[in-house]
Amino acid sequence: MTETRIPPAPTPDPSTQKFWDAAREGKLLLGRNSKTGKLHYPPRPVCPFDDEGEVELVPAKGAGTIYSFSIMRAKVPYAIAYVELEEGPRMMTNIIGAPFESIRIGQKVRLQFQPTDGDGPPVPMFTPA
Amino acid sequence: MSIRGKACIVGAYEHPTRKAEDKSVAQLHAEVALGALRDAGLTRADVDGYFCAGDAPGMGPLSMADYIGLDRLTHYDSTDVGGCSYLAHVAHAAEAIAMGKCKVALLTLAGRPRSEGVATGTAPRPGDPRQPDVQFEFPFGPAIANMYAMCAQRHMYEFGTTSEQLAWIKVAASHHAQHNEHAMLRKVVTVEDVVNSPLVADPLHRLDCCVISDGGGALVVTSPEIARTLKRPVVTIRGAGEAIKHVDGGRIDLTYTGARFAGARAFEMAGVKPADIKYASIYDSFTITVLMQLEDLGFCEKGQGGKFVADGNLISGVGKLPFNTDGGGLCNNHPANRGGITKVIEAVRQLRGEAHPAVQVKNCDLALAHGTGGSLGTRHGSATLVLERS
Predict the structure, then answer these.
(1) What is the CATH number of the domain that holds A78?
(2) Distance of CA A1 to CAs A4, A101, B334, Å?
(3) CB distance from B153 to chain A under 8 Å?
(4) Which of the four CATH numbers 3.40.630.30, 3.40.50.720, 3.40.47.10, 3.40.30.10 does domain B8-116+214-389 have?
(5) ipTM confidence
(6) Which PANTHER family does the protein's record reference (chain A) (predicted)?
(7) Which of residues 25-54 of A touch B (CB under 8 A)?
(8) Is B131 within 8 Å of chain A by CB?
(9) A30 contacts in B (CB within 8 Å)?
(10) Cα separation of B388 and B390, whole Å?
């Protein structure tokens, strides 16, 4: 790994500004239904599961396991993955700080925000725990 | 109300081009439209229903209706669910015909990603920033190939599926493509060829991927009454099903596809079982796409797809389930990066007995065509048709 891919910056919208502001403080937020307690990701103002209850944003602990992954053999290769958070939701991300050949499904990983292109908010990536 | 038996496919045409440097996308749409109408023995003046999807330039069906010269439309539909749109369109056309909203429906697809130099499977595409998932996915570089690769990786982990088993799917497609003079890849390949080709997105190799081609196709759907007055063999729509599967708020399960639901709905309407199907057109953007859909459609148990496809079981005249006898997207053609319409076209050829003699399935009276649109790794549409020769 000689070169690291610089991720493009996400474009926040009015409904996700809080999520990306929290990202700048190193916090990964999940959506939680105030009535049912069910967690969802990515968070959105209207719960995707239940008609009742308000969505509140709660921080994830930042621990998870790799659910699946693939090494993209691009000019600057990178590891895309779904990580299953300890809280339950699975999220698309990248695995960083690990030799590609060492990455495994089931591997324990921890959250590490990474800077994006320009002055965009950092994005949640994961590295071996 | 069921659409079983309420409509028939009477025209089917696949553009022979695989590289259309000297043609426009609109021109390809018009050429396939006339090709399918000629095949049916009909003319533009007969068309009162038009169906197209996101590959058609312009707002919905408007520019194409204008350009092709369709001037008596009483019904239109531009449902866009990527590559499976055209299978959904066949079902929607059957519904419209059954409801009396139109009598002769024309469906077109065309595109020229090869001439336009689109890095279809390997370059992440940003999409519309208003699409709510983009900001949570695009920074991580989701391309088509690595999304399907994650499905393959998980399938291997849960069920012990191997790269060699996936390779058999390409091997079978290549055995069929050798007989198709228009196919992009006509060379018969081996399992070793596939697993020794360069990795694109682990565990998928270059030969696990479909081709990037220009071209297009069109279909004509009409009522059984009109179909019987035409000279072509009648292919009747016996069952249809659609479904959407998505990330589900973070509960995504990469081991199955929407085919589980679309297929079940189509089989239920048709009143037949997977074992009754003599020929299957299965969407084949990648080898893993085929394997997972075969399981989800019920041709084998979940997790047994690797064993099912191995040893030539998908090769016509050799195995139990002949699939994609035109060579499919894996070897023949994937026009506009959307393989849905060619799936229906080859099923129609098989039911008419007009497939290449080397791959024609004997007594092929019941066929299935299945498509996926979008990404198995995130969100996709699925559409299934059960077709029969009447």
Answers:
(1) 2.40.50.840
(2) 7, 11, 34
(3) yes
(4) 3.40.47.10
(5) 0.98
(6) BLR3430 PROTEIN
(7) 30-31, 39-42, 44, 48-49
(8) no
(9) 250
(10) 6
